[in-house]
Amino acid sequence: MTAVRIAFTPGEPAGIGPDLAVHLAQQDWPVELVVVADPELLQQRAELLGLPLHIIPYSQQNPARRHTAGSLTVCSVPLAKPAIPQQLDDANSSYVIATLKRAGEGCMHGEFDALVTGPVHKGIINQAGISFSGHTEFFAELSNTPRVVMMLATEGLRVALVTTHLPLSQVPAAITRERVEETLEIIAHDMNAKWGIEQPRIFVCGLNPHAGEQGHLGLEEIEHISPALENLRNKGLQVSGPYPADTIFQPHYLANADVIVAMYHDQGLPVLKYKGFGNAINITLGLPFIRTSVDHGTALDRAGTHNIDDSSALLALRTAIDMVNR
Ligand SMILES: NC(=O)C1=CN([C@@H]2O[C@H](COP(=O)(O)OP(=O)(O)OC[C@H]3O[C@@H](n4cnc5c(N)ncnc54)[C@H](O)[C@@H]3O)[C@@H](O)[C@H]2O)C=CC1
Ligand SMILES: NCC(=O)COP(=O)(O)O
Predict the structure, then answer these.
(1) Are residues 264 and 295 in the same domain?
(2) Rounded distance from Cα 151 to ligand 2 centre (Å)
(3) Residue 152 CB contacts under 8 Å (≥ 6 apart), including other chains
(4) What secondary structure letter does DSSP report for 92?
(5) Is 154 contained in some domain?
(6) pTM passes above 0.80
(7) Residue 175: predicted pLDDT
(8) Which ligand 1 atom is the nearest neighbour of the CA of 301?
(9) Residue 86: pLDDT above 90?
(10) What's the total number of domains in the chain?
(11) Counting ligands in written order, which one lies closest to the CA of residue 17?
């Protein structure tokens, strides 16, 4: 029987992504792990870290084999320039995009059963003239999916977002009834399909302080969020809110929720990271393939050092394996 095949993209070559790939390789896995990256980059990082790494060139034709500690199957995508840990170089931005494209297309064609992503540096990709706001948006576009949802999860808390990488000044206009409804429907669908929660209890934040204080502190709750929730309740979804964001994250409320929905990135994610940074993962809901990711960024200051925490990468891979098996 052939094994499940999971792709890992290390992301920014000057960051800790290559280190994470080397760390992941140090233990056995019940799946084939295929790292989509430059093999020399991985070999050099392993040498720097003093860890063993026997690279096996990937071939789609070979049957998938379970990963054994110390080896690593690598689907080669060449760097434009040798990468120096901790030093961003926009010459390698197109390399980063090429790895995401190769891995994402592999998932869509059924070559890979899931994708786990390491951190990319959004700034340096844009500096190279490539418009890029995040993996979430990139894979939505690659797969022609009109709406996907970013959700971060740690023990005891899941936070999903209505908007993702949007300047704060553009958030209010993006909070439309349609967008809120589509987001919540995707969450309800995927919580059921991917986690087996039949009727997920979804608690929704307002946008404004005190959820708009009956319209005295903003109208988005009255004009968009509440009508969306009402409509979804009529369709049988267990959605409640809009709640003041500074109230809903109290443990007393969280105990009754399967997912908290925040209106924007920094409304929900600081709480999630305060609770579980390092032991959390990022999952894209609504995509036609499974994608999990680390909960942190490129941590440039730690690339090539022994001072990194690989817990989120390990958890992202374990979660992807569980999701494939389910
Ligand atoms: N999934 C992704 O691709 C993500 C990418 N980013 C990108 O990362 C870049 C840097 O973002 P920052 O805000 O500086 O966040 P960051 O997460 O890279 O770093 C914040 C702090 O946490 C530390 N840190 C992060 N991960 C760590 C780990 N695994 N082990 C030990 N220490 C760790 C860093 O050293 C730093 O002190 C940005 O360009 C951002 O766009 C940020 C979040 C997610
Ligand atoms: N803060 C999480 C984050 O920005 C992750 O973005 P993405 O690259 O996974 O879309």
Answers:
(1) no
(2) 9
(3) 158, 159, 268, 269, 272, 273, 280, 281, 282, 283, 295
(4) G
(5) yes
(6) yes
(7) 98
(8) 35
(9) yes
(10) 2
(11) 1
Q: Is 136 annotated as a binding residue?
A: yes
Q: Provide the CATH number for the domain around residue 63.
A: 3.40.718.10
Rounded Cα distance, 33 and 55, in Å: 12
Ligand 1 within 6 A of CB of 88? no
User: Looking at this predicted complex, what is its ipTM?
Assistant: 0.98
Is the pLDDT at 1 greater than 70? The verdict is no
Indicate whether 282 belongs to any domain: no
Per residue in 152-192, pLDDT tens?
999 999 999 999 999 999 999 999 999 999 999 999 999 99
Angstrom distance (rounded) from CA 217 to CA 204:
17
Question: Which of 282, 285, 290, 296 is the pocket-test mutation for ligand 2 (most atoms within 8 Å of CB)?
Answer: 282
Check the annotation: does 210 bind a ligand.
Answer: yes
Domain shared by 131 and 156, yes or no: no
Q: 172 lies in which domain range?
A: 150-273
Is 291 marked as a binding-site residue?
yes
Q: Which pair of structure tokens corresponds to residue 27?
A: 């233990």
